[in-house]
Amino acid sequence: MDISNSNPPKNVPFDPIVEARLMTNACHPLDATETHLSDCAHMNTGCLPPSDNLKSYLMSKLDLHLLKGSGENRRLATVKSCLNRYSKGVPIDKDELTKHKAALCELQQRVNDSGLTISLDGNGEITPANLENLLPPSIARDWPKDSKGDLCVTRDQLIPIDNDVSRSLLDAKKLHKGRFLSELEIDDDGRHRSWANPFGTTTGRENPKGWSFARLPKVYRSIIQPTEGMTITVIDYQQQEPAIISALSDDQYLLDAYRNGDLYECIRQSGPWHDQSRSVIKTMIIAFLYGAEEWTFTKEFGISHSTASQWINELRELFKKQLHWLDVSAHKAYQIGYISCLDWGMHVTPATRIKSLKNWPIQATGADILRRACSLLDANNISVIGCMHDSIMIEVSFGNHQKIIADTGVLMEQASAEVLNGFRLNTTVERVSVNGNHAYGGSQ
């Protein structure tokens, strides 16, 4: 990503969201002559892919909306790749889905029997204030509190409390996650289809439409099962965000740590937070890179303000080069009124939030990498059926799946090198499903 380029991106006469609608939105059944294609193209109901005739029409409309050139062709290839994914769909095991739904019904009954009126926010959380209103005074008085004196409400804090109320709160959280299962649509062929919505965010990341499998909590991904003779594999980019910004800022110290093993674990062992889990370190680093301050650390990790301040200062020193690169990038963006990556750009005004502007290059670069990875896999006839932020799901025949999985990892790493000036992100196989049997591996 060249932050010194002073030429703003071309004004391409298309709206990426309209492009996505033109390409893939399902439509009502068409009559025999398939007239009124333009109206049908803008319908947003049903799950089935458009007819071949409608797809041809949509392709021709898309061509009219794109200027020719490498960036525009990349966008066109991305939308076509997403259409292929949509047409293939993701196979769902209905028996496994039924089992999870039955377990959720039992959870719902337990919550109802508790007699508590539990109100969670959109993220499935309950605030300390709401919990205090929910609890009888005698229980609230003895309820564990964090370093700020607020009642403990996170999942990790609730588990050791182990009383009727904490267990009901945990059940309510599980029910909130499980709402995805009741909304997930499955077509007659046993496959789930949702539109990836490429370029659906300001950073160019995909933003799947509706109740997509990509939003499915990991605990429920066992419902994704291959058909007979097939294998489904999810392959991730490891520690993508800190590795991307370290590559962009040319921080050789952290790049070497990344090449030599687990970057999060390396940072965990070398700082004042060494008694924390790796998952906490991952959350901490990503939050820091996106501008989190002391009060966020205090609330998120249950630490004192002085400890949070110490952690922030240690991270500022560790990520000094990255922070400087982000400052320069943001300053340049405010000066020239835009920020861009290889395929995408965003207009910048004085009202653009600085935190959003510093987050943008990391996420936009990740989107660049994912697009190129999908294009490379398409070119090598490896069947991509889904993407989830920094991972790719493939479906291949069982007979040669091990070689194809290995090839997929190599191609994904090659795509990252094309974007990061030769630096390769590591990949790991997160999940393999073969005829109903699962194997998990790797770390993020």
Number of helices: 18
Spell the H/E element sequence.
HHHHEHHHHHEEHHHHHHHEEHEEHEE
CATH class of the largest domain: Alpha Beta
* Low confidence ranges: 1-48, 439-444
The chain-level structural class is alpha+beta
General shape? globular
Overview of this structure, please?
The chain has helices at residues 16-24, 37-41, 52-64, 70-88, 94-114, 128-134, 137-142, 155-158, 164-183, 240-248, 252-259, 263-270, 278-289, 294-301, 305-318, 320-336, 354-379, 401-419, and strands at residues 90-91, 191-192, 230-237, 338-340, 345-347, 384-387, 391-397, 427-434, 437-440. It has three domains: 16-92 and 184-241 and 364-440, Alpha-Beta Plaits, CATH 3.30.70; 94-183, no CATH class; 244-358, DNA polymerase, domain 1 (Orthogonal Bundle). Helix 1 runs antiparallel to helix 3 (52-64), helix 5 runs antiparallel to helix 9 (164-183) and helix 10 crosses helix 17 (354-379). Strands 6-7-3-8-9 form a five-stranded antiparallel beta sheet. It has a two-stranded antiparallel ribbon with strand order 1-2. The model is unreliable at 1-48 and 439-444 (pLDDT under 50). It is globular, with a radius of gyration of 24 Å. Helix content is 51%, strand content 9%. With 444 residues, it is an alpha+beta fold.
